[in-house]
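Late entry, evening session. Most of the bench is empty. Finally got around to the prediction I had been postponing all week. Sequence below, unchanged from the version circulated by S.P.
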Amino acid sequence: MKRLVSGIKPTGDLTLGNYIGAIKQFVNMQNELIDTEFFIFIADLHAITTPQERLVLRKNIKSIAALYIACGLDPEKVNIFIQSEISEHAELNYIMESTLYIGEMERMIQYKEKKESQTEGIRTSLLTYPALMAADILLYDANFVPIGEDQKQHLELTRTAANRFNFLYGDTFTIPEGIIPKTGARIMGLQNPEQKMSKSADKSAKDYILLIDDLKVVANKIKSAVTDSDNLVKFDKENKPGISNLLTIFSALTNISIKDLEEKYKDSNYGTFKSDLANVVVDELSPIQNKYNEIINSKELDDILDKGRDRAKLIARRKLDKVYHKVGLGRKK
């Protein structure tokens, strides 16, 4: 059986962009890839590359776990767990740091961008976190890794680490392949469609939609999204980024092609289009919020995380023992 691995950092509430670009894809794939075992985790170790408030981080970890399930991930098909509860992630991280080079880390685009935006000193983990990402993937011999366009470089570094380790120590790791969703892989901000949708300190609350936002607020955010002045519903990412982003969201949530949406709204104005899209988004989020509220404080959620942890721990320990043996660590002959 093949394996698929992915995770999301609990650095804030999940957005519509996270849902369309990642979670919705996981839900679709769990039903399509029936010969594949899924390992979907909350990447809390990755969160602490920047300072986090302890209680807020714990709240976010639990919230994301509940949203995974509320959005449709089936615990009978998917192993859902918390990264830090599997110590093998951190252990293999050091092996990966000992396999990769500093120059390879420094070339990571996200590192360069975050380094420029940091106002305080740069933490070592901000430089080396791609090694932990590699460990996350290789620990489970993942065949597939769902990625966005901005994550290709990290996956290539993971492949480099796996190939280098295999060359040095013999065949050990599976070389993973990336899966890029055809629609909705990168959802942009509603007020700034030139940048990826995210909840961050420098973003207006109108720029993003949280999965747990009040539904009236959700509708208003869609209706007030930035477009342009020509009132033509047409996909043109370069010249019409705002309406193009809204078309992408509409298409991703309804499975109606962008071309068909252009045809449907060719004689409509932006107001009509936005109103219809607002209804689509609200209808999508309503059952998610109902399920989320049902399980967020339940024993069911803890049971699901325990089950996912135990399965992940079993696989991870076996792999790490093999890695240690290959490298020559410990007393085992």
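Two things to note before I forget:
The domain at 2-181+298-327 is CATH 3.40.50.620 (Rossmann fold).
The first helix runs from residue 16 to 32.
Will write this up properly tomorrow.
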